[in-house]
Known about the structure:
By secondary structure, this protein is mainly alpha-helical. It has three helices and two strands.
Amino acid sequence: MVSLALVLAVLRIRPHYYRTILTYLTALVLMLVFCRVRSVVIGFRLIVLSVMIRMAISREEKGVFEVKLLWRR
């Protein structure tokens, strides 16, 4: 997935919970900008919606949201 590669190439996001949300939202924005096939966009919107709902009701311990540039420690 191109958006995951873009996010991971520049940012280190912890924990995985937030990385997943950011990756799906980034992919959705890229899909809305570059994809011209309406059915694909609608289908991906449904996938993103289901993932966001699943993440919202997850009982997983979220942890502290942390974003750092990849080349910095």
